[in-house]
Amino acid sequence: MKSGEETFASAFKSTSLAPYVNMIHFGFVLLIVTTLNFKLCFSACARAEYEINGECCPMCAPEQGLRVKRSCTRFADTICEPLEGFYCIEQNKGSCRFAVKHSECDPGHYIRQAGTMVLYDCTGDSSTTCKPCILGTFMSEPSGLHKCFPCNQCDENQGLYIQSKCTTIRDTICDVLDGYHCTEYSNLQCLRAVKHSVCRPGQKTKTLGFDPEFVERAHMNP
After folding, report:
1. Taking the domains of the chain in order of start, what are their residue ranges?
2. Is 152-196 assigned to CATH 2.10.50.10?
3. How would residue 140 be classed by pLDDT, with cut points 50, 70 and 90?
4. Average pLDDT value over all residues in the chain
5. What stretches of the chain adopt beta strand conformation (E)?
6. Are 78 and 93 in contact (CB under 8 A)?
7. Quick check: 103 and 124 in contact, CB under 8 A?
8. What is the pLDDT of residue 218?
């Protein structure tokens, strides 16, 4: 003898509503699959984004001079900041969008120390500001230094004289006084010279004194 449930199911299948129920069931399954597929497609991040914990976050691209300052969360976007040696030229909502490299001071200039009213060091928001070297100092190459180099002194007591004066872009060039010869060199410059010896009575000169740099130039330019 069949139970009441079995009798109801058998009667329901014999009615004309069964095909509609099957269609509704199929439609419900199709809706779930379509929704899942839509979510999967929708979650794909844009080219300039990356996914973290199911969220699409903006990238901090190194080729744009950026790095991550604060990672993306469910409630806030990524915060980017300039790389070391770069400063920001485009910001949006507290995050840097694009940064460029700090400039270097040209020869004859230096970076004035931060804290002044006019010129400042480079920061994350501004480029380097440079100031010309003062009289008696020079800077021969681009640099990030805060002070120019003092000009070299050609001391007559060291057997030297000024061949070329110091400028803001070139150091003093010293040369040896007549009757002296160089005993100490640095970067092809004479730092110290001494007077030629004099023969004592009863002696004669065997070899004349010479300037080693002059001899070197003579060999280079015969």
Report:
1. 152-196
2. yes
3. confident
4. 70
5. 49-52, 55-58, 66-70, 79-82, 86-92, 95-101, 109-111, 130-132, 137-138, 149-150, 160-164, 173-176, 180-186, 189-195
6. no
7. no
8. 37
55 Cβ neighbours under 8 A, 6+ residues apart:
72, 73, 74
* Contacts of residue 190, Cβ cutoff 8 Å, sequence gap at least 6: 160, 174, 175, 176, 182, 184, 213
Give 55-86 pLDDT, tens digit per residue. Answer: 777 788 888 888 888 888 777 788 898 888 78
Residue 6 token pair: 């079995």
Distance, in Å, from the CA atom of 152 to the CA atom of 109, rounded to the nearest integer, reads 18
Is the pTM higher than 0.85? no
Backbone angles phi, psi at 219, to 5 degrees: -70, -35
Tell me the sheet residues that pair with 138. Answer: 149
Higher pLDDT, 71 or 122: 71
Residue 113: what pLDDT? 40
Q: Which amino acid is at 1?
A: M
